[in-house]
Fold:
Amino acid sequence: MITNLVKANIKNLQPYNPKEVPCSIKLDANENNNVSHLLNQKISKAILELKINQYPDSNSTEIRKLLSEKLSVSKDQVVVGCGSDQLIFMVLNAFINVGDKILTPSPTFSMYKISNEVVGGETVEVDLDDGFRFNYNKFMMAIKKENPKVIFLSNPNNPTGGIIPREEIIKIVELSNAVVVVDEAYYEFYQNSVVDLVNYYPNLIVLRTLSKAYGLAGARVGYSIASREATAILNKVKPPYNVSSLDQTAAKVCLENNQMIESIITEIVNERIVISNELNKIKDLKVYESYGNFLLIYTEKARDLYQYLISEEILIRYFGDKGDLAGCLRVSIGTKEENARLLYIIKKYFFCKEEQLPLKMAE
Ligand code: PMP
Structure:
């Protein structure tokens, strides 16, 4: 009976099920393993002061104040969400009617399409070129043909790590009639942003998160930066009390201590370059250029390598053997020790016998 009542667009929807394989080294979700526990003491102390019997501040006022100062925008231009996932939903809820179109490059972050299916929108995807490069002309042609209401651009793009140049983003914002969402979840590893443009373009919405560079994925805090006009629209669809007081407290401590993550970000970027160079030396692997805290790798042995890494207690992301990410694996950049172990195990896999490993790789 209940299945007859479900909305048509939900009937065949596959739930987003992150793979939960317990492993001692977790490199599957682009988290920041370098900051785990670093702020826990400060967060715990701040939580002791909380009046947990009361609802949280529905507008996350303190977080918005800290963010607006950091980004040189007004508090009225920031919305805080339960992860940037919730902001993606808010955008779709505010702008997409059943049958309306959104446009995204492909492959990209899967939640744009999944969330759009929930609201009943249609998702039009524009394939990235060889090497997962963004093709501006192809994308512009799709904009003209499809006239989408919302465009999602993940910059850097998850899971490919590629980027879209600022000038191309500006032209897309200027030349389309759409709301353009630039998802800067990995901004801190790339350092190029379009946040400075939100006062010029009312149709531009930038998304950021504390889940990646800030190492706060467990607290679920993301935010949008946009014109006052766009922000007022998002606030209409924001659920009340959407960020718990525990999460707001963690976010506040994290933002107040943001100098702690600066050297960690540099270290992650340096490690990314080292790992990428090392992996590229293995002839059976292709590593794509990445500007995030992760690397996308192609190999014909993807499934086997993935299983082998699990047997060695290392979890990475495997995208299966079908579709445009067939044979692709994504690894997050972890701590120095985790990265060294990952490299060691991957080399062990490809060179098969441990005695064939170069001496300097010995554990
Ligand atoms: N955008 C992108 C591009 C992502 O990769 C992710 C997380 N994987 C998110 C948004 C969602 O992040 P969160 O909800 O943790 O803020």
About this structure: The pocket of 4'-deoxy-4'-aminopyridoxal-5'-phosphate is lined by residues 30, 83-85, 109, 154, 158, 183, 185, 209, 211, 217, 222 (CB under 6 Å).
